[in-house]
Amino acid sequence: MSTEALAELNARFGIRGRVTFTQAAGGLIVAAVRNAQATARIALQGAQVLDWTPAGARPVIWVSPAAMQAPGKPLRGGVPVCWPWFGPHATEAGFPAHGLARTQCWEMAQVQQLSDGSTTLSLRLSQDANTRLLWPHDTELLLLANIGRHLRIDLLTRNTGDEAFTLTQALHSYFAVSDVREVVVRGLEGLPYIDKVAGGARRVQSGPLTLSDETDRIYLDHGGECVIDDPGLRRRIVIRRQGSRSTVVWNPWAEKSAAMADMGEGVYRGMLCVEAANAAEDAVVVAPGGEHRLQVSYRLAAW
Ligand code: TA6
C-alpha cells in the first residue's frame, strides 16, 4: 500500500492514541487498537485478529513465531476466518483449504469507540471476478471485532441474491497456552465428534478433554460454553458462541508441527485451537434476503 493510501486510511478510520494503521514487515496492513481495557491487532488481510491482550494480562491469542506474514498467504495464528467452507472444499480439490476469506484483503467499513470503553472495528469483504470463481453466490460478508475486556467477533453472511446457499465456516482461533499437554478443555463432555486423526471415525467425548497426541476433531451439536483451563498460566479462557453448532479442536503435535514451515520444532506446545464453527453436517443454509451471524466471545477468568 502506498504511503498516501495508508495516510488516507488513518485519516478516515484512525483515532488518535486508540486506532492506528501501519504496514507491517511483509507488507500486511494492520490496525493496532489500544484502549483502557485491552490492546489488539487486526490485519486487513483476512480481517484476521492477530492478538488480543486484556490490560494486565498476558496475550490470549497465539501467532506462530514462523508465521508467513505476506499478502495472499494464510497466516498461522490469530483468528483466521474460514469461509465459505471449512477444511477442504467438498467437491473441488483445487480450491483453497478453509475457503477464500482468510487470504483476501478486506476493506475497513467503520471504527467505533463505544461508551463502555471498548472499540469496534468493522470490515467488509467485497466480491470480485476472482472470488466469484470460487463462490458465485451474491453475498455480503462483514466482520465486527469488539476489543475490550472481552474479544467479541461477529461474522455476518448476508444472502443478497435470489437463491439459497449452503456454507460451512469457522473462527479458527489459536489460543496461547502455557503447555498444551497440561491444559484441560471443559464443556465438550458427552458430545459426539468426528475424529479426523482416526480417518473420520465417530466417537463420543468422555469427561473433560486433555491432549496427549495430534488432535483434530469436530464436535457436533454443541452451542454451549467451552473453557480452557490453563494451570501453568493460572487462568481460564472462556469461549461463548452464538450461531455456531460445532466446535473444532486442533493441535498438530510434535511431528507435524516440526514439518510445517510456518510452525517448527516444539512450537505446538504453546498453542491450542478451539474454534467456533459450523462444519460437517452443521452446515448453514442462508435463504435469499437472509442473514447468518456467527458470534464468538472470549474472556479471561481468574484461576
Ligand atoms: O481446524 C483444524 C484444521 O482444519 C486441521 O485439519 C488443520 O489442517 C488446520 O485446520 C490448519 O489448516 P491450515 O489450512 O491453516 O493449514
Topology readout:
Layout: H1 3-13, E1 19-23, E2 29-34, E3 38-43, E4 48-54, E5 81-82, E6 107-113, E7 119-125, H2 129-134, E8 139-147, E9 151-159, E10 165-167, E11 169-171, E12 174-176, E13 184-186, E14 192-195, E15 201-204, E16 215-219, E17 226-230, E18 235-242, E19 246-251, H3 253-259, E20 271-278, E21 284-286, E22 291-302
Antiparallel strand pairs: 1-2, 2-3, 3-4, 5-11, 6-7, 7-8, 8-9, 9-22, 10-21, 11-20, 12-20, 13-17, 14-15, 14-16, 16-19, 17-18, 18-22, 19-20
Bound molecules: 6-O-phosphono-beta-D-tagatofuranose.
In percent, how much strand structure appears in the residues?
A: 35-45%
Detail the poorly predicted runs: none
What is the CATH domain class? Mainly Beta
Helix fraction, binned, reads: under 10%
The CATH topology is: Beta-galactosidase, Chain A, domain 5
Number of strands: 22
What would you call the structural class? Answer: mainly beta
What best-fitting shape do the alpha-carbon axes yield?
globular
What Rg do the Cα atoms give? 19 Å
Under the CATH scheme, the architecture is Distorted Sandwich
Which small-molecule species are bound to the chains here? 6-O-phosphono-beta-D-tagatofuranose
Termini separation (Å)?
44 Å
Round the mean pLDDT to the nearest integer and report it.
97
Multimeric organization = single chain
Largest sheet, in brief, is: 8 strands, antiparallel
Write down the secondary-structure element order. HEEEEEEEHEEEEEEEEEEEEHEEE
Q: Helical segment tally?
A: 3
Number of domains: 1
